[in-house]
Amino acid sequence: LHMGKTMKEDLTVVAKYINKLYPPEFNVFSIYAELYHNYFASQAKKNAESHLEDKDIYLLLSWVHNFYPKDMRKDHALAMELDKVKLGSLLPSSLSKELEKKYLDSEEVTVKNSLSRCLDKEIQRWKEDKEPEKLNGHFQSELLGIFVIQSIYSSQKRAEDISKGVGEELSRRLLKELPAFLRSYRDAFEDFKEKSKKHTYYKPILIANINNCWNFR
């Protein structure tokens, strides 16, 4: 963040004031821009090749795909000059793809585990001697119906915020996870229906789960 802010502020000064003090053939702005970019890119590469936590991978990819090319280089004070320089990406394509794969693998596992934990909690709630919650006057599982959908949606949204391609790939992966989760949910529910007919709130729990189906559709 500090590097990005410094580069943006300094290049703005170069574009507005320093550039015009030299003859055009000196290409002053280009020289400054290339030097800043090369240093920034070297630091990004150094970070990318080190051991990164998931949140760091996400942040670095956000810089590569979003903050750097869009927020910085499309800034109104710099865009025209930077378009002439053609600086390229902060990371080599191969390294960027490697980070994207790590991010996607990790996010897929995170969502899968999150859905599994959610179902385990829901099954545990069926076993408790409690009436299901009501949502807008109807029995419904806020935990299951809403949490699952929000988990998938927010994960897709984060990926799309990196880039359209990363978002599409994660959506493709999660489209496999959701049916797998729904099958596990169905199996657990069928088991409850079969074995828990004497449960105090048997019927409200059935209604709550049937009402969940609309949300999942």
TrEMBL record:
Domain of life: Eukaryota
Gene Ontology CC terms: exocyst
A family per Pfam: Sec6
Gene it is expressed from: Tnfaip2
Protein name: TNAP2 protein
Signal peptide location: none
Organism of this sequence: Motacilla alba
Entry's Gene Ontology molecular function annotations: SNARE binding
GO biological process: exocyst localization; exocytosis
UniProt lineage: Eukaryota, Metazoa, Chordata, Craniata, Vertebrata
InterPro entries xref list: EXOC3/Sec6 (IPR010326)
